[in-house]
Write a structure and sequence with these properties.
The chain has 495 residues and is of the alpha/beta class. It folds into three domains: 2-222, P-loop containing nucleotide triphosphate hydrolases (Rossmann fold, 3-Layer(aba) Sandwich), CATH 3.40.50.300; 280-451, Nucleotidyltransferase, domain 5 (2-Layer Sandwich); 464-494, no CATH class. It is 43% helix and 18% strand. It contains 18 helices and 15 strands. It has an eight-stranded mixed sheet, sandwiched between helices. A seven-stranded mixed sheet has the order 9-15-12-11-10-13-14. The longest helix is centred in the middle third of the chain and has 20 residues, at 247-266. The model has no long low-confidence stretch (mean pLDDT 88).
């Protein structure tokens, strides 16, 4: 009876990942999200899914399933194929490798996969081979994989913490490594699996979904608390793993880590819905502009066309109470000549008092072209003021943040200006969003506030009757002096 039960368990382990996990770890308790992950990984093993992203909260079992059990099961079923596993640190990747190797040395694995066997001459934790031609290799993100191919390239948490995730330099290095190293190691028909906790809108998962969308990525996003009825069958407000992380515990975590970490790490939405730096309730809108405004503008320049950063021009009016009304905005990933023409059109139309620009290499190289265009189009009224980047972006945006919080900044109604929706989305994700060029331009604008003069409402000219009545009611006016002078002359003549 025991042998028959073992035979059933072994057959199940050979056929299914869940059966294999049950054989290796009899006490493992499967939750709904574990089964969803297993289904996604099984689709990769069958060759049905070539690009898979799994994002889920920390300590919910992702690495055990994806980076420990799956590679051992995959190699058992495909001993002629190769897997490369990577993580933010080579030590962590090697730790995954050690656990995979130990499984492949176990009696359960050998019984489940009798046609697969390790090469006794190559069994280190970082790299080991199978006699059937397959292999396993562990490497840190950024590490070299020269000479090695992969039928499955598995990336488990490519960044370590918030500091790395917020670093544009590190994010760029991870993406460059993926393009130039990881991706080039794929064998024909190979698969990529990225499993991670989200940190940033432009992290590897977010970048792959947006910039590499042509590869048909499959996304399995598992928030700690369901925000709507989801693929797991959860109702809105239900916990992902209530046996370990029930709602009271999750609420404690939410209050402790704060809105930014909660939305990113636990809800897999790197930008809070209400905004972290700029709050949604701060966005005051208008339908019509006040009658008397002084106009000012600002630009954040970029030189890359069809990609990279955007060039942004913003124009706003300031009323007598120093309220700021955003009036117009131009944004584009174009060459310099096109955005210079756009700037000239805005200046010609609104004739702003001052235009703010950020000094630097871009402005220095293009300033002669801008001046020439001003002469050609007879733009003489705008004073261009340069500002230096003396602090980081959040610090430079403090004046804008403060004025919005005080209700002094007004945006056009989104129904009136379609570009307002994109602007608000960028501001709500600032400073962790992928793009911040519109925020930079608005920040430049508000840095001119110390030199802005509010608009003056003209006093209507008084009628002659109103002036005479005011003069009569005012003591010691010029009229009174005139009358007193002639009274003295009449008295002198009478004498």
């Amino acid at each position: 009876m025991v042998q028959k039960t073992n035979k059933v368990a072994i057959d199940s382990a050979h056929l299914s990942l869940s059966g294999y996990i049950g054989l290796q770890y009899p006490d493992y308790i499967f939750s709904r999200h574990h089964l969803a992950i297993i289904r996604a990984l099984t689709s990769v093993e069958r060759g049905e899914t070539k690009r898979l992203i799994i994002s889920m909260p920390p300590r919910h079992g992702k690495s055990m399933l994806v980076s420990e059990f799956f590679p051992a099961w995959y190699l058992g079923r495909h001993p002629e194929k190769s897997i490369i596993t990577s993580s933010y640190a080579s030590e962590l990747a090697e730790d995954f490798g050690r656990k995979v190797r130990n499984q492949c040395q176990s009696a359960e694995w050998k019984a489940t996969f009798p046609n697969a066997s390790l090469d006794p001459s190559s069994q280190s934790s970082a790299r080991f081979n199978l006699l059937q031609g397959g292999s396993y290799y562990a490497v840190g993100v950024g590490g070299a994989t020269t000479g090695r191919g992969a039928h499955v390239f598995l990336i488990d948490d490519p960044v370590k913490d918030r500091e790395q995730a917020d670093s544009e330099t590190i994010r760029r290095k991870v993406k460059d490594w993926y393009r130039s190293v990881a991706y080039t190691r794929l064998m024909k028909g190979g698969a990529v699996i990225i499993v991670m906790t989200r940190w940033h809108e432009d992290d590897l998962a977010g970048w792959c979904m947006e910039e590499q969308g042509h590869e048909d990525w499959e996304l399995l996003s598992l928030p700690a608390i369901a925000e709507e009825h989801d693929a797991l069958g959860r109702a809105k407000g239900e916990a992902l793993w209530p046996e370990r992380f029930d709602l009271p515990l999750l609420e404690t975590i939410r209050q402790t880590v704060g809105p930014r970490e909660w939305q990113a790490l636990y809800q897999q939405k790197p930008a809070p819905d209400e905004g972290a730096y700029f709050k949604r309730e701060w966005f005051a809108t208008y339908d019509t502009l006040p009658p008397y405004l002084r106009y000012y503008g600002a630009s954040d320049y970029a030189v890359t066309a069809d990609g990279g950063d955007y060039t942004v021009h913003v124009l706003a009016g300031v009323d007598e109470q120093e309220n700021i009304y955003l009036v117009d905005l131009w944004r584009g990933q174009t060459d310099a000549l096109e955005w210079i023409d756009a700037w000239a059109s805005i200046v010609t139309m609104y004739k702003p008092q001052i235009w703010a620009e950020e000094g630097g290499v871009i402005l220095k190289s293009l300033d002669p072209i801008i001046r020439k265009r001003c002469q050609e189009q007879k733009i003489y009224s705008t004073y261009r003021q340069q500002f230096a980047s003396v602090a980081d972006k959040p610090t430079r945006a403090r004046s804008l943040q403060a004025r919005m919080q005080m209700g002094k900044v007004f945006f056009p109604s989104p129904s009136r200006c379609p570009w307002v929706a994109d602007l608000m989305a960028e501001m709500l994700t600032f400073p962790v969003g992928k793009h911040d060029d519109q925020v930079d331009a608005l920040s430049l604008l508000t840095r001119m506030l110390a030199e802005m003069r509010p608009a003056k409402v003209p006093v209507p000219e008084k009628t002659l009757t109103e002036r005479v009545n005011e003069a009569a009611a005012t003591p010691w006016t010029a009229h009174d002096l005139f009358e007193k002078h002639f009274e003295k002359r009449r008295q002198a003549r009478a004498v």
